[in-house]
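Workshop exercise sheet. Pairs work together: one partner reads the sequence aloud, the other fills in the structure field after running the prediction. Swap roles for the next sheet.
Pair: D.N. / O.F.
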Amino acid sequence: MEKNLTAYIVEDDVLNLELLKFLINKCNPNISIIGEAKNTDEFTGLMLENKADVLFLDVELEDEKSSLDILNDFKNIKPEIIITSSSEDYALNAINEFNIFSYLIKPLNIIKINKALSKLENELEQKSDNNESTDNVLAEGIIAIPDFKSIELLDIYKISYLEAAGKYTVFHLTDGSSRTVSKNIGNYEQQLPKNVFFRIHHKFLININETKTVYRTDGHYCVLKNGKSLPIAKRRIDGLRKYINLN
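Structure field:
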């Protein structure tokens, strides 16, 4: 990785902390550790700074709150989040509620860390390429959708919603058809107009014009005009309320 990156480590066990620092340095010496936290108060301090590129996050910190509870208090989180946990119990909640980049089960080793950092490198390079390239929104209301054989010029108002599928993005259109593109959903969140599209979940970016109802009972979710129900992540509810002028 040519670009120097910065990292936070949140870990309450000294041995695990030192092991993780050693493994990170072995796998990628260009990553500088600029903050460490051993409890939720120290972690809150790091999140208030919100300066690192990547966050290595232990879930259980021997406090009343877990680190996921702290994450829930913050919006516009800058770092890519790599969870390091001795348990798989938090995985479903973490993946559903937060934009978790990777979930590593302890004990950590060089293979797990190297795999996660290689994946991170590819992700950041893709984002960098996207930022340096010409915006795919070619003209008002038009976006370019490439595949292996052609480039389709798509009317953005015919997009019902976008769905993340790993490193791919699925465009679900108002006519019921879909398009799968080999770029992640974050690229299109940046490119599509903010007054039309809103990220309600790490997996879903909706066209607000194609949204029929937002429900606040039985969990937060919205129903689109095509009848599709999509979940709204807890940490995005306040943002959605402001977006549709409910606050």
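Discussion prompt: The first strand starts at residue 5 and ends at 10. What would you look at next?
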